[in-house]
Description:
By secondary structure, chain A is an alpha/beta fold.
Amino acid sequence: MTEPLSRRNFVKGVGAALAAGAAAPVLAACGSGSSGATATSGGKTTITFASAKFFAKSTIGQMVQLYNSSSKHVEVQYIELPTPSQSTQVHQQLVQSLSARDGSLDVFTGDIIWISEFAGAGWSAPLDSYFNASAKAAYFPGVIDACTYGGALHALPWYLDAGMLYYRKDLLQAAGIAVPTTWDELVTGAQKLLAAGKVSDGFNWQAKQAEVLVCDLVEFIGSNGGSVLAEDGKTVTIADPKAVEAVQFMADTFGKDKVTPRAVLSWDEEPSRMPFTGGQAAFLRNWSYVWSDAQDPTSSKVVDKVGVTTLPSFPGGKSTACLGGYQFGMNAASTKKSAAIDFLTWMSSPATQLRFATQLGLAPSRPSVYDQSALKAANPFMVSLRDVFTGGTPRPKTPKYSQVSLAIQAGVSAALATGNVQSNLSQVQSQIEQILG
Amino acid sequence: MTTTAKTRPGRSGGTESLPRGGRGDGSPRTGGHRGVAPRGKALLLVVPMLASLLAVSLYPVLRTIWLAFRNTSLEIQGDQFTGLANARHLAHDTIFAKAWRQTIEFTAVTTLAETLLGLAIALALARTFRGRGFVRAAVLVPWAIPTVVTSRMFSWLFDQNGLVNYVLVKLHLVSHAVNFLGSTSLALPTLMLADIWKTTPFMALLLLAGLQTISPTLAEAARIDGASAWRYFWRVRLPLLMPSLLVAALLRALDAFRVFDLPYVVTGGGPASSTETMSTYTYKTMFSGLELGYGSAMATAMFITEAIIAGVFALFIVRRLRQEG
């Protein structure tokens, strides 16, 4: 473990020598020397930060620059990974880097579903000694839950996304239908609008055999008070009565209730969104990106006709929103933890979160940021997400999440397509039990 | 390969066909020098090719087979020899069995359809008509588009709000939109249709090349002998085309067996794993689940199946070539 480190130091030493002597312009031009040069200049500690690529009015690189110019002791080198749409590649690169345990990476950002995996493998450092209970209380409880593995905080929240209900406020108003708070109300309202010929789809969601199916599942089951895995992360509860009831409802939306087209079985986000912004659907479960699509007059027929609210629930359950987004982690093998914590604290601070929200459109994970007038001025829609994130729920927390997810995708898709909910869910249960060993 | 290597030095002259003797007496004669060098030089020139072949082809295959007997996983950081544990797991993996069956079905249906349709198109294109060059180029367009792009296109075309349903409903062929991609019975046939649309032109081009090697004098001779066009096709063209046809079908079958982009983009393997193929399932296991060991066992099973398919074709091709003498 020390071997690569000493090699790194050696490279740095060479870099410093090169910078001092300015003897070898050829090597310096290669760029490798520059890292060593900045590491020693001004006595700053250099740490590396790897993150998937995000951009809008500003970029991650520019945010890092902002930190570097304000920090007296720490210099952050940003390693740009692919965009979150290529999350498999981002994951692979992080896993390769972290599993080497050589400390070549100090701070990173990762998808919320990788936190348990990284923690279980011992790659991400526990953060409880740096962030106490009151620091944690400043974030939405759901994201702190997602960042916690085995009772310890293993990631620091960055930004959030979650499932929410989009509805046609014009149609609901005209038909005298209240915004639904239960699934029954949603079905009744959708059937009413379908019968009146106002829309061709009542309620669109996603059931493609893909990750999004797990998200939708967590929301339906959660809103009935059920879960996929129990709190202990080992007991599989996906075939318990509450879960079965919720999955039966998912099947009923295109089965007996007929509010959803059967094509939902092949839909991920976009195919379900298109009929909605095309003015053909009454309700839509989707992520926050749909809002700006719906307000774009060049492609949307529902500009100013859309409302957003939390997803409905079953009687006795409460609205559940599946959490997405990237969060910060610190490499357990990092040798510059105090510098890394300084950077993390800055990145997750209210002021920086506000900047991420206004400059990059990334929704804050701290409720307090939503009270700031600057956010309301820059992005009024984002303010309404506060209620959605309050009901935020993580996906099953297990180090073997990716295998569990694949089993859920196949099993729940089979349950929905065949209608044999109980038997398919029991099968998924035994598969997950086998995976968790 | 061995026969050609042996005969080649012999062809250039009696004395030169004795490389050992030639090298042994070390005579300065230029002729003797030439006799030794080509062989040594030839071997030397072949070495980089062999080495790169071993590096990019044999090594990964052997490495995959080696991994198939281990529990290597990036997620749980395991890496131990587990013998046949992966194979046993595979034997009880119902989704794998399903994927295997579906991949075979996909391969059989698309290869057969693409060969027959490709043959029809090739026969049409082999005739001389105005604008033939343009038509030949245009036929290749579907094949030239990246599969990921056509896959996206197909998911729009066959969606319930897509063009295909729009046309079918307008023509009153169906009363309401057909659920092409969200139905366990239609999703795989729809993907087959997409693949046939995309790859038939490629087959047509391969077969056209085969048709053009058939001498036009044979057509003349057949006409003079009074053979009908139908008889000419069955008795002359098809038998002569057979070797190219078999090779083209072999290439196509091996390619179809690895189908990935279409199901991965359009259906994600669903619904209910009804469009899961060997490649998509292996990819998911290896790169999403990071189970390198178990994924390698799947890849090895794929490799064996492909070897069997290739073997069956090779049997036909060899028999065909023997018949021709």
